[in-house]
Automatic annotation (TrEMBL):
This is Protein NDRG3 isoform X2. Pfam families: Ndr (PF03096). Belongs to the NDRG family.
Length: 373
């Protein structure tokens, strides 16, 4: 049996970075900057989910070798939501925690003070919501978004169902565990469950955690609408930047992420549904996520050559997205055509990339990378 996960050891392995407490109109925000700006390239901006901080949420991903090959080309700015960072002081009585809208409004001031001109955002859960709100408010600041477990809706039946299915509704830690993990994960993946339960209950001041949770619990729906090509692409409210939506196939957030995908421009959006993965893909499958992120930033023109060092010969990456064809009114089964077929030779393996496009209303396209034996 492997040794239990050590979040402190993971957090130390990447180095400390430079920490800042930045004053904004809605209070102080604790951030950590790693590296320096690389020319005109954007900074990678991360924002964590409830019950986590930037270290427990992202260091498994950023410590992965393939991800370090990417981040050497960028500076990285990690944001901790107010009161969620390591050794955070407890808020005084009467403190008014920022709303989700206000948390998003804090970020432009932080970027200005740190002389960050633009970002590629990576957000999980509540952090994904906040970064999406930033992109809607300030589209010129955000060049791309990786949104893990995003829920664009106000609290609704999906949140209620998650807490009911977990069977734990009276304790804040249990509610947050039900937010992160599926019922199967809670009963089967004991090592990671124990690690994160202890982290959520011991490493973050519980009053501070409750305030962040209540802010997310009181979120309003993100006002986004899928554009109709050739009709309202420039007028409808939606993300203008490329977006990669990520969710584990057994995550409690699957339905929410699919809903978000239905509201975004299909020509700029990709949905990555990770097989054999639950609620924390950046922790459980950091290698696959790092590979997907490499392709994402390469598509933005920032990394000319991608090398996959650690893709297992026993698994592939499946990337799915929904497309909308407004000109199609036929009720017949969709026709299938091969858009492209590419064979890519890497130092260690030969990989095939096959993309099949279904020409019909709101059909699914799937991009699969898999090794040839």
């Amino acid at each position: 049996m492997s040794d239990p996960l050590d979040l402190h050891q993971i957090s130390c392995s990447l180095g400390v970075g430079v920490e800042h407490d930045v004053e904004t109109a809605h209070g102080v925000l604790h951030v950590t900057m790693r590296g320096v700006a690389k020319g005109n390239r954007p900074t990678i901006l991360t924002y964590h989910d409830i019950g986590l901080n930037h270290k427990s949420c992202f260091n498994s991903l950023f410590n992965y070798e393939d991800m370090q090959e990417v981040t050497q080309h960028f500076s990285v700015l990690h944001v901790d939501a107010p009161g969620q960072q390591e050794n955070a002081p407890i808020f005084p009585t009467g403190y008014q925690y920022p709303t989700m809208d206000e948390l998003a409004e804090m970020l432009p001031s932080v970027l200005t003070q740190l002389q960050v001109k633009s970002v590629i955002g990576i957000g999980v859960g509540a952090g994904a919501y906040i970064l999406t709100k930033l992109a809607l408010n300030e589209p010129s600041l955000v060049e791309g978004l990786v949104l893990i477990n995003i829920d664009p809706c106000a609290k609704g039946w999906m949140d209620w169902a998650a807490s009911k299915l977990s069977g734990w509704t009276s304790n804040l830690v249990d509610i947050i565990m039900g937010h992160h993990f599926s019922t199967d994960e809670l009963t089967e993946n004991k090592e990671i469950i124990q690690t994160y339960r202890l982290h959520i209950s011991q490493d973050i001041p519980q009053d501070n955690l409750a305030m962040f949770y209540n802010s997310y619990d009181g979120r309003i729906e993100l006002q986004m609408e899928r554009p109709v090509p050739g009709l309202n692409e420039n007028t409808v409210t939606t993300l203008r930047c490329p977006a990669l939506l990520v969710v584990g196939d057994t995550s409690p957030a699957v339905d929410a992420v699919v809903e978000c995908n239905s509201r975004l421009n299909p020509t700029k959006t990709t949905l990555l549904k990770m097989a054999d993965c639950g609620g924390l893909p950046q922790v459980v499958q950091p290698g696959k996520l790092a590979e997907a992120f490499k392709y994402f930033v390469q598509g933005m023109g920032y990394i000319p050559h991608v090398v996959l060092n650690h893709l297992s010969s026993q698994s592939g990456i499946r990337i799915s997205a929904r497309i909308f064809n407004p000109s199609s009114s036929s009720s017949s089964p969709p026709s299938i055509s091969i858009c492209f077929f590419a064979v890519i030779l890497f130092p260690s393996s030969l990989f095939v990339c096959l993309c099949v496009c279904l020409h019909a209303v709101d059909q699914l396209i799937t991009l699969i990378f898999f090794p040839l034996q």
